[in-house]
Amino acid sequence: MTQILFAGAFALAFALFGTKGLIHILAGRGYGQIIRDDGPSTHKTKHGTPTMGGIIFISAAIIGYLFAHLLTATPVTTSAILVIGLVVGLGLVGFLDDWLKVSRQNSRGLKGRYKLLTQAALAGIFGYLGLQFKDANQLSPISEYLSGVSETTIYLGTFLVVLFIIVMVMSASNGVNLTDGLDGLATGATIMTFIAFVLIGVWEFGQNCQLDGIVASNCYQVRDPLDLAVLAAAFAGGCTGFLWWNTAPAKIIMGDTGSLALGGAIAALAATLRVELLLIPLGGLFVIVTMSVVIQTLYFKISGGKRVFRMAPLHHHFELKGWAEITVVIRFWIISGLCVAGGIGLFYAQWVVK
Fold first, then answer.
1. pLDDT tens, 17-63?
2. Residues 288 and 335 sit within 8 Å (Cβ to Cβ)
3. Measured CA angle at 189 (ends 178, 288), to 5 deg
4. How do the domains of the chain map onto residue ranges?
5. 26-35, 93-102, 254-263, 316-325: the lowest-pLDDT one
6. d(CA 275, CA 200)
7. Dihedral angle at the C-alpha atoms of 54, 271, 68, 262, nearest 10 degrees?
8. Which stretches does DSSP call E strand in the chain?
9. What is the spatial distance between Cα 345 and Cα 354, in angstroms, rounded to a whole number?
10. Residue 160 phi/psi, 5° resolution?
């Protein structure tokens, strides 16, 4: 359990102090955020704010995770390596998108279809590899059975599992990307989700079917739950250190480098901890924000140009209604906290009633 503390604390410290250095590097090279012309007018002041900040908390999480293993002389696990691989891959896609924006000095980065295809390919590779590498107990990092608050008896098979993982990863990564429109909003919400995964991983480890004395009806068939909790703690710590500089007025923005990676991380943790459908309440804020975009787009097309919201995503709607940015962020954090609490409640409730 000390691994969790080491990973979270080291990642927090690395991000807290490392972000300041990254700000100076990015600002010195002129790698600043390009603001959309159709965004809220109050966002014009954000133009030029150093972007690609996701570099620091991705690095902090990975280094914090490895540092915890080094201190405790324990091996890294296949499940965690697969999650890290997906996060790094999506982070590189986001980095390319951010780089194209700052180098061209406009808000058009990587073409949408290329971004989506690359996300799908990375998610597909993650899903397929997650079904391989079985351990001595014949457990692979990802199950071929659908999981809700725990693994169910609904068999999907390789093709459907990989397809489902692709949908999960793309939904989560783009959901976080859409939510990352206000200073600190997406960062704070993902911290809560990562903490939830820490709690879930620790509980699944304590009630693992491979442990002696565990009642079969109350146990979990999860390959590396404790190590995944360590990784989740590292991401929570890294994001917390970054949030110090990312709160309004932000000194640095995570960019697509960070948002795509964070979305991939929470989807990958949900898949490897075998709580896939629980990602919906745990990432409830991201679901709400994404649905606001879907509703706005569909209604605009159906009604011939009318809108449900003043602007989508949803947080911009409240900005245009006159809410201060910090007010929107804090209230949305409250919503996120309630969603996460509800998800945790569902997870523990299903165990209690067994």
1. 999 999 999 888 777 766 655 555 555 556 668 889 999 999 999 99
2. yes
3. 50
4. 2-281
5. 26-35
6. 9
7. 10
8. 145-147, 151-155
9. 14
10. -70, -35
